[in-house]
Amino acid sequence: MSAQQEEETYELEEYWPTTAWLDVYQEDLTASEELSEKMSGWGQGFNGDFVFEINNLPIEENTVGDLPEEVWSALDTGIRQLPDSVLDTVLEDAPEEVQNGIEEREGPLAERAANELLETRIENAPDKVWPGLRRVMPEILDGLLEELEENVTDEGHVYAWIGLEDGDCTGTDTLMELDERDKGFVLTGEYEQWVRLVTGELDVVEGIMSGELELDGDMQKILQYSDAALLMTDIASETDKRFLF
Known about the structure:
Pfam families: SCP2 (PF02036). The strands form 2 sheets. Strands 4-3-2-5-6 form a 5-stranded mixed beta sheet. Strands 1-7 form a two-stranded parallel sheet. It has 13 helices and 7 strands. Helix 4 (about 70-80) runs antiparallel to helix 7 (about 110-120). By secondary structure, it is of the alpha/beta class.
C-alpha cells in the first residue's frame, strides 16, 4: 500500500448505510429548493413518512477484512507493530473465543492476532471488541461496529425512517423494529438493489413496477409525485458515499 493510500481517511458520515450518512442526506434533501417545490402538498391529509427497508446486508458472509481497506488497515498495522510483550498484555482481557482462535493459529503472535480479528465475520465483530483492543483500533472501525450493533437488526436489515411533509424533510432515524415509528410508506429492497438505487443506476418508479423494489403504501401517490421521488434518488446519488460492502 502506498504512502498516499495510508494517509486516506474518511468520516463516518461518508459510509453508506450509516445513521451519520442519513443525517447528511437529510441536510441535502432540506437544502434542495427543487425538491421543496416538487413535494409541495406531500403528506397533507395523509402520512407521507417513509421507511427505507434495506434487507440482507452481507454481514454474515463478509469479514472485517472485506471492509474497505482504509477501515481495517490501521488495526492490522497497529497489531502487527506491537511487541509480543505488549500484545500479550492487550490480549489478556480479550474474549475467550478470540484467545482460543489465536491459540489455534500458526505463526508469530502478531500475525495470528491480526488474522483472527480480520477474519472475524462482521456480524460477530462487536462481540469480539474489548477495551484493550480499542487502544489500537482506528476510530472509524470502532464507529462502524457501534453502528452495526445499534442500528442493524440480527437479520442484517436496516430500517431508515425519513420524515417528509409538504416539501420538507422533517427528520431521519434508524429503527430496530419496523413499527417503532408511524409511516405511510415502506420501500423494501435487497442491499444490492439499494446500492443501485442510491448510485442512480435504478429508477425508483421502474424498480417498483418491475418488482425489484416493493412498496407498501399508496402507489397512486407515488405516481402523482413521481418527479419528487426521482429527485430524492438523484439527491441520494449525489450525496458523497463509500460503500461498506
